[in-house]
Amino acid sequence: MAASKSTVAYAFLESRMKHAILGAGAIGGLVGATLASIGEDVAVIVRPDKLAGYPHNLSLERPSGIEPITAPARAATTLTEPSDVLWIATKTYQLQTALGLVKQSPRHVIPLLNGVDHIEVLRARFGKETVIPATIAVEAERSGPGKFIQRSPFVRLNLASSSESLMGAIVEKLRKLGFTCQFIQNEQTLLWNKLCFLAPFALVTSASGLNVGEILADEAWKIKLKSTVAEASAVANASGAELDAAQIYTVFEGVPPAMRSSMQKDVAAGRQLELDAIGGPIARGGERYGIDVSNTASLMAAIRAKAAA
Fold first, then answer.
1. Distance separating alpha carbons of residues 56 and 167, to the nearest angstrom
2. Is residue 223 packed enough to be buried (19+ CB in 10 Å), middle (13-18) or exposed (0-12)?
C-alpha cells in the first residue's frame, strides 16, 4: 500500500534537523542557505539591530551556470531553543563574544573557523564529543542582510569521520549542489590540511597585494609561497598531521588566477585581521618543535606593518 501524503510529510519532518548559524557573514550565510535549500530547518543568529529587517529567505548567488539559491530561514538574536547542530562561522576574534549568544547547548557543534586553536576552546565549553572539527574552503561574500555571493566555482567541506552517521545524508545532498565533501579520520590532518593552504595563500597575497595568478607569475613571490607551504606542512606533521607539502602546493595551480584571500581584502579595507589565527599556529609550532618558519614570520611582520600604516 502506498504511503499517504500525511505519512510522507511526517517522515520528511522527522528527518529534518534543526541547525543554528552563529556568524551570519559570508561563510555562515552560504552554509545556512544551502542547508535550508535541501529542506533543513535553519535559524540564523543576528545582531538585535538587524532582526526586524532580516529577510525570511536566505539567497545565495552562485557562479555563472550554477542555479542560485533562495530558501526560508528564521532569524533570532540568541540561541535559546534546542538545536541538532550549531554551525560556528564567526571570525576567530569574534568567537568569545559570539558564544555569549548561545543560551541553549546544542547536540553537536561544527566550527568552520580558520586556524586550529579554536577546537580546544570549544571542547572546553561544550565537551569533546559534542564538537566536530570541520573546515570549509570557498571564496564568498555577504552582499546584504540575508544575501550572499559564492565567488569561487568550488566549495570544499571536510568533516571529522566521527560525524559520518550524523551528517552522511546531508553531505550527499550537498554534493548534488556541487560541494566537494570528505570525512577525514585524522583530526590534525583535517585541520592542518586547510591551514597549510590557507596560511600561505593569505600571508603571501596580503603581503604582496597580488592575486594568485600574479604570484605564480612572479618568481620571487612564487618562491615565498612555496617556502611558506613547506614551513606550514612541517609544523603540521610535527603536530600529528600527515600531509605532503608538494601536493598542497599543486593546489594553487588549479585555483582561479584572479582569486584573492579574505585577509588581503581585510588589509585593503582597514578591517581587523585574523593574522594570529592563521599565521600564529605555524609561528608558535616552529618555536615548539624547533622548525625554521622564518619565511612565515617575515610575511606576518610585513602584513602587520601594512595594517598599521
1. 25
2. exposed
C-beta neighbour count of 153 within 10 angstroms = 15
For residue 75, the Cα-to-chain-centroid distance in whole angstroms is 21
Residue 184 and residue 161: Cα distance in Å, rounded? 5
Phi, psi for residue 297 in degrees, rounded to 5: -60, -40
Task: Write out the DSSP string of 181-241.
Answer: EEEES-HHHHHHHHHHHHHHHHHHHHHH---HHHHHHSHHHHHHHHHHHHHHHHHHHHTT-
Distance linking the first and last C-alpha atoms of the chain: 73
The CA-CA-CA angle for residues 38, 44, 46, to 5°, reads 160
Contact of 156 with 136, CB cutoff 8 Å: yes
| Per-residue pLDDT tens over the stretch 120-149 | 999 999 999 999 999 999 989 999 999 999
Residue 50 contacts residue 145 (beta carbons within 8 Å): yes
For the chain, give every domain's residue range.
5-185, 189-308
User: Strand pairing of 18-22 and 41-45?
Assistant: parallel
pLDDT in tens, 223-262: 999 999 999 999 999 999 999 999 999 999 998 899 999 9
In words, the CATH class of domain 5-185 is alpha beta
* Helix or strand holding residue 144 (H, E): strand 140-144
Q: How much is the CA Rg of the chain, to the nearest whole Å?
A: 20
Task: Report pLDDT for 156.
Answer: 95
41 vs 14: CA distance, rounded Å: 11
For the 189-308 domain, the top CATH level (class) is: mainly alpha
